[in-house]
Amino acid sequence: MAKKLGAAIMGAGWVSGEHVRAYQANPNVDVVAVGSRRLATAKAKAAELGLDVPCYEDYDKLLADPNVDIVSVCSPGGVHVEQGVKAAQAGKHVLMEKPMCVDLDGAKKLRDAVAKAGVRSVVSFVLRWNPLINIIKNQLADNAVGKIMYGEFAYFHAIGPWYPGFEHYCSKEGTGNAMLCGGCHAVDAMRYFMQDKIVEVTAYSTRSDEPPFDKIQYDPTIVAICRWAGGAVTKVACSFECNCPYMFDILLMGTKGTIRDNRYYGDKCLGTFGHPEIGRGQYDWVTWPTILPDSGDVSHHPFQGEIDHLVECIQAGRESHVNVADAYDTHELCIAATLSAERGEPVKLPL
């Protein structure tokens, strides 16, 4: 029987518990260490989760632990690059919480270090394992939408003092900008579905300056128009100062059909091409009953699928579809959109 992989958790915040639970549910992994910037918080997280494992405040000592094969980087975003680079250089596979960086230089350093080390990596765009996202991906593969002409994606999530880690999310140092902090989930879903390269982005951002959102150091509302190499145009938006429930919107319009969240209208249901008003087939949306990406609670997110995928990639020696190299493109667009909004002009990609 193959030796189990040993996973270490670096960071003792809200999301780290979901990483631990997912590793514990995988029969090929043991959680072997917990680290944090403060030893007391590492020990508290281990006790909370019933773990009897070494706890570290010295990250280098955690990486030197011979039982550690994988590091889940769950620390604040401002230290992700440093910790990810060190993990790769130590020969550890890495699961990077998003954002994996707060600027483009950091993204390049992390991408290059992981490639040079030859370790497996996954960046935690965990919604790629959400059931609706999987349904849409399969429908696109089945040509249910055809050639995509237009799309809209949005991440709307009011983040205030009631949300764990609010002080961290407010900070440019901690998260970079609105797109990197949360809008990256919408950007990543857009890229995952479009399977093309963005050549230009034009963005606008704003802020209300109403408490408590006035504490956010960057514009918490941003919208970007993206032009793709294949000719499509898409819009992606993010807001942290909205007065509404958590919303993750998806719209894809193509030559053969349209997907709007968990609803479909198009040729796949019509059977033969024709307008329903002249009596052929579908006359309203078909709804897929499924689990939607409709909560900001990390316990709602499908970490089990993500971590099982990472373990499979390590065991098979293959790259993930959401490794650091792929996630670089998502982060680059987030940074380019912010640059466009700040400069008041379009920005061409790659940067």
Layout of helices and strands, plus pairs?
Blueprint: E1 5-10, H1 14-24, E2 29-35, H2 39-48, E3 55-56, H3 59-64, E4 70-73, H4 80-89, E5 93-96, H5 104-117, E6 121-123, H6 131-141, E7 148-156, H7 166-169, H8 172-175, H9 178-194, E8 198-206, E9 221-228, E10 233-239, E11 247-254, E12 257-260, E13 263-266, H10 267-270, E14 286-287, H11 303-316, H12 324-343, E15 347-348
Parallel strand pairs: 1-2, 1-4, 2-3, 4-5, 5-6, 7-10
Antiparallel strand pairs: 7-11, 8-9, 8-15, 9-10, 11-12, 12-13, 13-14
Gist of the model:
With 351 residues, the protein is α/β, with parallel strands linked by helices. The chain has 12 helices and 15 strands. The protein has a 9-stranded mixed sheet.
Distance between the termini: 47 Å
Whole-number average pLDDT?
95
CATH class of the largest domain: Alpha Beta
Largest sheet: 9 strands, mixed
Overall shape: it is: globular
* Amount of helix: 25-40%
Question: CATH superfamily membership of the largest domain, which one?
Answer: Dihydrodipicolinate Reductase, domain 2
Strand content: 15-25%
The CATH architecture of the largest domain would be 2-Layer Sandwich
Number of helices: 12
CATH names the topology of the largest domain as Dihydrodipicolinate Reductase, domain 2
Task: Give, in spatial order, the strands making up the sheet with the most strands.
Answer: 14-13-12-11-7-10-9-8-15
Structural class: alpha/beta
Instruction: Please give the number of β-strands.
Output: 15
Description:
There is one protein chain. This protein has helices at 14-24, 39-48, 59-64, 80-89, 104-117, 131-141, 166-169, 172-175, 178-194, 267-270, 303-316, 324-343, and strands spanning 5-10, 29-35, 55-56, 70-73, 93-96, 121-123, 148-156, 198-206, 221-228, 233-239, 247-254, 257-260, 263-266, 286-287, 347-348. It has 2 domains: 5-127 and 302-322, NAD(P)-binding Rossmann-like Domain (Rossmann fold, 3-Layer(aba) Sandwich), CATH 3.40.50.720; 128-295 and 331-348, Dihydrodipicolinate Reductase, domain 2, CATH 3.30.360.10. The mean pLDDT is 95. With 351 residues, it is of the alpha/beta class. The protein is 36% helix and 23% strand.
